[in-house]
Amino acid sequence: MMNKGMNKRAEKPGPGRRAGQPETRQAILDAARARFTAEGFTATTVRAIATDAGVDAAMINYFFGSKQKLFEEALALRANPMTLIPPQLKGSVEGLPRRILTTLLETWDNPEFRSPLLALVSNLSDDPTENALIRSFLEDSIAGPIATRLTEAGLGADMAAARAGMMASQLVGVVIARYVVVARPFADLQRQVIIDTMAPALEMILLGGTHTR
Amino acid sequence: MMNKGMNKRAEKPGPGRRAGQPETRQAILDAARARFTAEGFTATTVRAIATDAGVDAAMINYFFGSKQKLFEEALALRANPMTLIPPQLKGSVEGLPRRILTTLLETWDNPEFRSPLLALVSNLSDDPTENALIRSFLEDSIAGPIATRLTEAGLGADMAAARAGMMASQLVGVVIARYVVVARPFADLQRQVIIDTMAPALEMILLGGTHTR
């Protein structure tokens, strides 16, 4: 094991894995992928990954800078669901569903971003306890921030969480039906058709109100 | 192989598997499960299952009565998505989302129905070509019949298919988020809260119109 608090490259090499060795980096990535997938982002600690990989936690920071960067690299994510939502929260609550839907579809319609996300989302187990990573995306990276934004706009906390959760479920449905199952004609629809039709419906889920034909 | 056209029990036993033997029945079920999962309901023929199982196609009818019954039994489905939608299509188009959402949630909230459906839905591959069964549910058993109902109500065929597909994607999202991922608080919400909040939004997806707060 490396010395505690070590944060520079192989300053005092110990008997464990050494910084600078490609296999150390890969061991960290492998351990991280396993932990994140099994336990989700939030519950996974850098310390646990370090223990699994047989390195000091400081070496992870040395290599990757942050838990989030490690996460992105371990899962080969070029578009990280955790970083996509926050910028959309700025601006009106009314426009929020349209902004999020646009970002979601632009990201997934891009094959470069899609492949690793597809691997992630299609990896669902029929044992719900094993779906921790996707659950943590939904709860912590999508529904959670939307609920917070709704309470800022004046909605009660329980109602905000319920409405944000319902909206998040709809986004999951778009992803599964269009990119994982590739149901037609939905998968072939122009992005703008989906946005124009679904954004008002999502707005109603978030904000309530009435529908007039 | 059994004689062609044979439909009574082991009338003229041939060299192949015999009716009445439990292993014959099981061989048919195994072959059916593999075919349906790989190719979907529509593309799978009873003849292909019979060939895989080494029996005459008539023996499948003898044992199971119909392709649909065989499907239900092969997948151990007590609630078959194919049979859930058609009864909801009767009645007004405006009320359709509420009726379908109610049936969907009642079915999945029942643990007895949920387990086999969960195994089916969570069995998604990151290779979309392998998701034929779920694709055939979405296209042929959910979106298709809804689109037909919309055209009966006067909508053009392309628009009807697009809107029905968008609505079907929302139903998938509810199932994945609530039962497979078990995202909270969405998974804990009362059924009626989800129905009351989401039915008007789904109605807007199906019928268009405007949202007023």
UniProtKB/TrEMBL annotation, chains A, B:
InterPro entries xrefs: Homeodomain-like_sf (IPR009057), HTH-type_TetR-like_transc_reg (IPR050109), HTH_TetR (IPR001647), Tet_transcr_reg_TetR-rel_C_sf (IPR036271), TetR_C_16 (IPR041678)
Domain HTH tetR-type as annotated: residue spans: 22-82
Pfam families associated with the record: TetR_C_16, TetR_N
Gene3D superfamilies assigned to the protein according to its UniProt record, in alphabetical order: Homeodomain-like (1.10.10.60), Tetracycline Repressor, domain 2 (1.10.357.10)
Key words of the record: DNA-binding
Portion annotated as DNA-binding: 45-64
Single annotated GO MF: DNA-binding transcription factor activity
Organism superkingdom: Bacteria
Region described as Disordered: 1-24
Protein's recorded name: TetR/AcrR family transcriptional regulator
Species whose genome carries this gene: Antrihabitans stalactiti
